[in-house]
Amino acid sequence: MRISQYNKNMQFLYTDMYKHVFYICLEFCFFLYDFVNRLENSDITEEGCCAVLSSALKSNPSHLKELDLSENKLGNDGVTQISHLLKMPNCKLAQLNLSECSVKEEGYAALASALKSNRSHVIELDLRGNDPGDTGVKNLTEVPNCKLK
pTM for this structure? Predict the structure, then answer.
C-alpha cells in the first residue's frame, strides 16, 4: 500500500508542477507579446537594431497584429526593412505606429509599395511627426483604400 500511495503523491506533485510551469510559460508569453507590440522610444535605429528586429519578425510574422515603433530613429532604411515584412503573405499586421521615426520621401515610397501588395491587413498606419514631402504624400494617396487623416 505504501508504494501505491507514494505513486499517487508523486503523480499529484508532477501534475501540480506542470500546472505551475504552464502558468509561468503563459505569463512569459503575454510579457513577450506586450514587449514586442510596444517598442516605442527604444533607441531602435536603422543601423543594426532595426535589421535584427525585422529579421526576427520575419521568422513568424503571422501572430503579430500591432506594432508600435514610434519615437525610434528608424529613418528610411529602417522603414524599408519593416516594409519588406509587410509584403510577406503571412504578415497579419493591422496596426503600425511609425510616428516620429525620421521617415522621409524614400521611406514613404517603400511603405506605399508594401501597402499596395498587402493592403488587406494594414488598416491603421500612424506616420505623424515625419517629413513625407510632396512625393511621400502622393505615394500614399495612390494606395487603394488609403485615407489620409
Answer: 0.67
Give the three-class secondary structure for 125.
strand
- Phi, psi for residue 114 in degrees, rounded to 5: -65, -40
Domain ranges of the chain: 1-32, 33-148
> 33-148 in CATH: which number?
3.80.10.10
Number of Cβ within a 10 Å radius of residue 54? 17
Per-residue pLDDT of the chain (149 residues; tens, 9 = 90+): 566 665 565 555 555 665 656 556 555 555 555 555 555 555 555 555 556 666 666 666 567 788 888 888 889 988 998 888 888 877 888 888 999 999 999 999 999 998 888 555 888 889 999 999 989 989 888 888 777 66
What letter does residue 5 receive in the DSSP assignment? H
